[in-house]
Design a protein that fits this description.
Layout (H helix, E strand, L loop, with lengths): L1 H36 L21 H9 L8 E5 L10 H7 L2 E6 L2 H9 L1 H5 L2 E5 L7 H8 L4 E7 L5 H7 L4 E8 L10 E2 L8 H4 L10 H9 L3 E6 L5 E6 L4 H4 L27 H7 L4 E4 L4 E4 L6
Length: 306
């Protein structure tokens, strides 16, 4: 019995050391890439500075590049929707630049796992376990004592992201990245209707009905004095910068490109990936409703011609 416990502990310890060594190597290589990126005077679009360390699609490189184009930026961030934080938009930022960090995550087990990681005590990282909606978002931020002016905000909750962003009033991030639903196209300003307890996997079995179109985000953030910079090459995350910080960055990007997504994330009724094309994916949710924000009208997806 004692021997088995020792073997189990030894296996756990070795895996942890191995993971940490891999992470150190990844961060070191990423820092070298970031150094090279920041020497580039002008890029064609954001895809040219992409690299992936902890982000899902290459956002680490884009975020680092934008930050280095901003002078006197507050060294703090907020990430809303983190899961266990092993795949995130701010972990590389936290490790490489040692910013102050704030996280909001709805999953209790994921929050416990984050608190068990060494990164939690090695850095000034605070976390709130709560399901975010437009009624509580500003209250949660107050509870976390997040400064009004922060350097970076990442929002990815696979649901009512547009409504959270619209309601967000008590902080003013310099840089902002938000996920959008590429299935909804780039020509219409649409979003899922507001629902306090929106859960993507329960709204439709396909897991495709969530979020807003990129045009909806661009229009919303323009009214909040943000400038659109482009998307990642995977076509699911949009980047913005506060207007008074934008001049140097805007002059460094030739094209504010919106990339078309190619990933196939549709699910069948059993919850397994079904790898459907965009047209077939859209057909699955054709009877669901979106709000056409230009008309403030609830419209069935099939009639929108997305």
């Amino acid at each position: 019995m004692i021997k088995q416990k020792f073997k189990k502990y030894l296996s756990f310890a070795l895996k942890r050391v191995f993971r940490e060594e891999i992470e150190k190597d990844m961060v070191l290589k990423a820092k070298n890439l970031a150094f090279k990126n920041n020497k580039i005077k002008k890029i064609k679009n954001l895809s040219e500075v992409e690299f992936q360390v902890f982000s899902q699609w290459g956002e680490d490189g884009i975020i680092d590049w934008i930050i280095n184009k901003c002078n006197n930026i507050p060294k703090s961030f907020l990430e809303i929707g983190t899961e266990n934080y092993k795949e995130s938009n701010t972990r590389f930022l936290l490790i490489s630049k040692n910013w102050d960090g704030f996280l909001i995550e709805a999953d209790k087990e994921a929050v416990s796992e984050i608190k068990s990681q060494r990164i939690y005590w090695r850095h000034n990282l605070k976390i709130k376990n709560q399901f975010v909606n437009k009624e509580n978002i500003n209250k949660i931020i107050k509870q976390l004592k997040i400064p009004k002016k922060i350097g970076f905000l990442s929002l990815d909750i696979d649901g009512i992201d547009y409504w959270i962003l619209k309601e967000l009033k008590i902080i003013s991030p310099v840089i902002l990245v938000c996920e959008y639903n590429s299935l909804f196209g780039s020509k219409k300003s649409v979003t899922v209707p507001y629902k306090k307890k929106f859960q993507r996997n329960k709204e439709h079995y396909s897991n495709l009905y969530f979020g807003s179109s990129i045009k909806a985000l661009i229009n919303l953030l323009k009214n909040k004095n943000y400038v659109f910079l482009g998307t990642n090459s995977s076509g699911n995350n949009a980047f913005f910068v506060k207007k008074n910080f934008s001049k140097k960055i805007i002059n460094s990007i030739k094209e504010k490109k919106i990339f078309l997504s190619k990933y196939r994330e549709s699910r069948n009724r059993k919850g397994s990936l079904s790898y459907l094309s965009k047209d077939k994916s859209l057909n699955l949710i054709k009877n669901k409703f979106l709000i056409d924000l230009s008309k403030n009208k609830l419209v069935k997806i099939s009639s929108l011609k997305l």
